[in-house]
Amino acid sequence: MKDATETPDLVTHLRRPGFWSNGMIAATALVVAMVVGLAADVVPRLSAGKPIGDILKQFSFFGVVAAVTVLVALRRLIVLLRPVAPIEFFEDHLRLPASVDAYGAVSVPYRDILSFSLRGSPIQPQLLVESKKYIFLFSGDMFVDPDGARTVFAAIEMRLLSLPDGHQILEQMDRRRALAHVALRKRTVVTQVLLGTIAVFWANEWLTGAFNTPLGLIGWGAAVPALVRHGEWFRLIAANFLHGGAFTVWLHVGVCALSLYFLGMVVERLLGSTRFLLVYLVSCLAAMTASVVADRAILSVGSSGAIFGLLGALAVFNLRFRTQLPLGFRQPLRWWIFILVLNGGLSLLVPNVDLWAHVAGFATGIVCTALLCARWTQVQPTPPVGLPIHFLTGAITAVFVAGLALAVRNKAHFDTAAELSAYRTVLDDPRINPITLNDVAWTWAIDAKVSSDSLEMAAQAAKRAVAAQPAHPEFLDTLATVEYRRGHIEEAVRIEREVLEQEANPIYASQLLRFLLARTKSAGPLFGKGLSSTNLGLRFSPVTAADKTDATLTLDLETALDEPVAILAAVRDHDERVGFVQIVVGPGPARALTWGNADEPEMNTWSRETRIQLLSVDLDHAPANPAGPGNPTAPASPAATADHHLQFWPMDHTINALP
After folding, report:
1. Alpha carbons 405 and 370: distance in angstroms, whole number
2. Catalytic residues, which ones?
């Protein structure tokens, strides 16, 4: 704490920067990118009828990030109302604002300063000060005095020179600058080759439709524990260069590529290209092996385990050679805390993050780097590489090249039989979660060219998903669709009726209409006991412009009913499916029932060519008491009365496109 009686020798006043600093712009761009990516992933799922709750719970971590960003923005708005603390020089320390958003300042002993420099425009330069705990960056426009940055720079230099060993401290800073100058001139060839390899594999995944199915990456060499145990060892290698959709396919490969780029730029320059490649490849193997041994997921892909190996290598340099590293090659303690907390949060909140791969990669990077640099006493700009390291790196590189070649060969021969064999091995795993089972079954169910063998496996997967969560309407809908594709239309109708009773969703209604039309086409309308087309009919009267009469739908019931019935009909305009109508009628005498625009506003939009096609008159699914005033506990509808009600669902066009 600052002594209240202590008077600073020099004070440089600062002003708060505007709200849109570089950091705030970057954070906002990140949130916008996440929102766009989330929308790109969620909208197609919603269009396919997936419940919003099941979708959004997979992205809870990104909601946390967005919430934190909003809180930071609100805090900045509040902070802008208060003045920023000045930079003050005292006899043995100086005080600086911890950040542009800080309320107060922190004390930094002159001896703890590791580097300081002026950067950017010579007219209004930025001031960068690095200490053992903090990094301070002040833009030129933050200084009230136009020469404020230069004044602070000169004052720090003068204070350091006044220390007994000040000249040695400044010489050490010069050596770090020289090391940075040499290191930054070195090309990072291995990092660029690795990024290129990832890009090539990702492009091939995209072009071959590997992202279109939940298990599509298996053909390219994803690390599937069951298949690795069957002898497909190349998956431990190939999986490190594949990326899928933990959130979206763009986000997964984008985050990994950026992380590899920034860490590779630093670690390769510190280790040298040969040692860097050795650490990266060994971390790849260790991370993917740990993932397979842990066996917590159906498949694993991604370079994140190897990237954590690079993070472990950087940790070794920061611990052993911290005082020798130039700025940019070492990170403050707060940075390490942030990285570890962030990735811990990812592992807890995002189900698809492979914790064991990250832990194994990080530990491997630490061990490998510690062994490779065991005899180093200082960081070397161009570290020599001995023959054993060359041989070991060459050997493991050859293994990786062979593994990638086998993965490409496997994909080339991954025909229908091989695909079915691989999928059968995966789906036989008793620990596979019902969501994955359902997604696999649905993918096959909507494939126009699916084989009968695949449909059989889809049925098994869908039944397992339903057995795990019997009341899940989405799983039941998938099972109904699979049965429909297998030709079991009556079973598909039965299951879809259950789904619609659980959740009155237009998508499920459109599915039921699709199945009923198929049944009607092959067997005609299905009537209950005592009812037929001779004593029951539906007719539609369109809007009449001349006398401004609303459209009406009339049910002609020419026989008495002893129990409720459910009448199902298709609304068609020529060959186009307009929608699906369900009418529930209670017991009573023969009569005619009419519904108009007040009951169902959609009727007035139906054209003069609209026809009503009777599909089914069902006793089994009719409620004992139809919805309406006579049955207040039943779900009411706009077209409900005491003894009958009508429900209309417009046809969902995404369902129209299904095979």
Report:
1. 31
2. 304, 358
* Rounded CA separation 107/129 (Å): 13
Element (H, E) at 481: helix 473-485
Question: Angle formed by the axes of helices 60-79 and 333-349, to 10°?
Answer: 140
Structure tokens at 573: 């305009």
* 439 touches 214 (CB < 8 A): yes
What is the dihedral sign for C-alpha 150, 153, 155, 161? negative
Which one has a higher pLDDT value, 268 or 418? 268
Domains in the chain and their CATH numbers? Answer: 10-183 (2.30.29.30), 189-412 (1.20.1540.10), 433-521 (1.25.40.10), 525-656 (no CATH)
What would the mean pLDDT of 465-479 be, rounded to a whole number? 92
Cα gap 34→38, rounded to integer Å: 6
Name the percent of the chain lying above pLDDT 90.
Answer: 29
Q: Is the pLDDT of residue 593 over 90?
A: no
DSSP class of residue 594 equals: E
Alpha helices in 48-89 (DSSP H): 52-56, 60-79
Cα dihedral 120, 124, 130, 136, rounded to 10, equals -110
DSSP 226-271: HHHHTT-TTHHHHGGG----SS-HHHHHHHHHHHHHHHHHHHHHHH
Tokens, residue 52: 């919003």
In the predicted structure, residue 394 carries a pLDDT above the cut 90 = yes
Question: For 63-106, how does the pLDDT look when each residue is reduced to its tens digit (9 = 90+)?
Answer: 666 777 777 778 777 777 788 889 999 999 999 998 777 778 89
